[in-house]
Design brief:
Length: 550
């Protein structure tokens, strides 16, 4: 059980974050009274690249990632680190191809961008899907992971702890807006990384370094655990082909077309700041494999050596066989391996991930509801009414997400559960965004029907998987299913575009690239901060890393 000094550190941290969030939001609001909604939802478009990059990472990495990536490291080794490293490639796409359009069109939301490129029906559909996905994926799953951790560490009822965290995070997010979210996320990223590095260093020293890991894995015949790219037919369902074909479908939606993530970019001071911020996040995304996934693998090695007691997370199954509930591995590592005092810092890191994920999602939901739903039906709405509507919607989202917890708690692995849902949501959205910016002939009607039919197809396949898991469809790994759905949606939109030819407006005629090289015409900053240099460097680093851990 966690000691009193560690509890004190954790409580002081939470109190400090709430105070800073309220100060950051309220301080700026007193200075700017003329454009309250722009300040609240987009931080007055004043964000610079370091804060954007840190906020992107903090919104992406939550308590769920710390817990589930360590679990995956214990179970399958470095394999799920692909979700972290592959993100670098989609962040390059965001910086090079998507950011210029988002900044040029001066949109506050991505559904707003779809209306400018296609039509209002596309905007409405994406707004609804984005709100639901933010509630389910970014808030409810994070709440569940946080509840499990706090219950394990403090012995507090899961729903009580979740409710308290929801109220505290909602307080500064709902009052302070995006600026409060980004300022607190920047701090939380530093705390989260510090905590993760501490436990990694402790495990690395205890396991005897890299040689200690590989020697044990070689002896036990599990060297595949240090491989990121698995052969075709691998039982994990994550072969190299599934990773390279399936992840981009998920990644383009998540990093380039999801309001919760991209809102940090939309608040950038200018295009160069936005591009550099996205690429900065790409470099930070290299770290999770080493500080989130690798500690789980080291815990496995320590357990095999008898240096890590996992009896508290073991139980007998229905057949009388001893099984390990690996969802509790990360919290067990904290209590078993970390000295008193540092435990409080690591708990603060877990709470950082939880609070930053939820605060980012709440702000994006408020923005979507206010701009894409409320103002559409009441165009005369003033700034104060718009902000009020956003705050009410954030409160409603919190309540709704709490109600979903019993349903999503049925997943054995939270990380697999979240990616399973994304794999069936992402394909139609990734399709209409990609074709929209790269293909002149992508028409409004084609995008509209692709979003409707593609979403229905994804939902249908998801239901079949759950009802008939042994069917042909049920046997397809979720990453490959995402790719197959993406191909189906691509065929749909291309076919519909010829049946319903495009009729560009003056605005939509400027929102696609005439050639793939056109976005590279912008010279950008001089020196090492140039977006072309950073993109090439990030690409080179990822190629080298994959060649080492193939």
């Amino acid at each position: 059980m966690i000691k009193r000094i560690d509890i004190t550190i954790s409580v002081l941290y939470i109190t400090g974050i709430v105070a800073i969030g309220l100060w950051a939001g309220l301080r700026k609001k007193k200075k700017i009274a003329g454009n309250e909604s722009n300040d609240y939802f987009l931080a007055g478009k004043t964000l610079k690249w370091p804060m954007i990059g840190l906020a992107l990472f903090a919104t992406n990495i939550s308590c769920l990632h710390l817990v589930s990536l360590a679990q995956s490291g214990f179970d399958t080794g470095l394999l799920n680190g692909n979700f972290e490293w592959m993100a670098a490639f989609t962040l390059i796409l965001l910086a090079l191809f998507f950011v210029p359009f988002y900044m040029k069109s001066k949109v506050a939301t991505l559904p707003d961008f779809l209306e400018k490129r296609y039509n209002k029906a596309c905007r409405d559909w994406l707004a609804i899907i984005s709100i639901l996905s933010a509630i389910i994926i970014h808030i409810a799953f994070s709440f569940l992971a946080g509840g499990i951790v706090l219950k394990t560490l403090f012995g507090v009822n899961m729903y009580v702890s979740i409710t308290v965290i929801a109220l505290l995070t909602g307080l500064y997010t709902i009052i302070g807006g995006l600026r409060a979210v980004v300022v607190t996320e920047s701090i939380q990223t530093i705390v989260l990384l510090t905590g993760a590095i501490i436990i990694t260093a402790i495990c690395y020293n205890k396991v005897g370094g890299w040689h200690g890991i590989t020697n044990l894995l070689h002896t036990t015949g599990h060297m595949d655990k240090v491989s990121m790219l698995r052969p075709m037919g691998d039982k994990s369902g994550m072969s190299w082909m599934a990773v390279f074909l399936g992840y981009p479908v998920l990644g383009i939606w998540y990093w380039c077309a999801d309001q919760t993530i991209v809102q940090r970019v939309l608040g950038a001071k200018d295009t160069n700041q936005a591009r550099s911020g996205a690429l900065f996040c790409g470099f930070i995304k290299i770290l999770p494999v080493f500080i989130f996934v690798l500690p789980g693998l080291m815990a496995y090695v320590l357990a095999q050596k008898g240096l890590f007691d996992i009896h508290s997370v073991q139980h007998l199954d229905a057949t009388g066989k001893m099984v390990t509930d690996t969802k509790g591995i990360y919290t067990l590592m904290i209590t078993e391996l970390v000295p008193t005092g540092l435990v409080g810092i690591l708990v603060a890191a877990l709470l950082s991930g939880l609070m930053s994920q939820i605060s980012g999602a709440l702000n994006s939901i408020a923005t979507l509801v206010s701009y894409d739903l409320y103002k559409r039906h009441k165009p005369q709405t003033n700034d104060k009414q718009l902000v009020k509507a956003g705050r009410i919607s954030a409160v409603a989202a919190l309540v709704f997400s709490l109600g979903l917890l019993p349903l999503i708690d049925q997943y054995e692995s939270l990380f697999n559960g979240i990616n399973d849902i994304i794999a069936h949501i992402a394909p139609p959205i990734s399709t209409v965004f990609l074709l929209g910016i790269f293909w002149k002939k992508a028409s409004a009607k084609s995008a509209q029907y692709t979003l409707w039919l593609g979403s229905a197809l994804g939902a249908g396949v998801f239901v079949i998987n759950k009802i008939f898991p042994d069917s042909v469809i049920g046997q397809i790994p979720s990453m490959m299913m995402a790719f197959y759905l993406f191909i189906a949606c691509g065929i749909m939109q291309i076919s519909f575009s010829y049946y319903f030819p495009v009729h560009h407006t003056a605005e939509s005629n400027t929102l696609y690239w005439k050639s793939p090289w056109e976005p590279l015409q912008d010279k950008g900053w001089k020196g090492v901060g140039n977006y072309k240099f950073l993109s090439a460097l990030l690409l080179l680093v990822m190629v080298v890393l994959y060649s080492i851990f193939h």
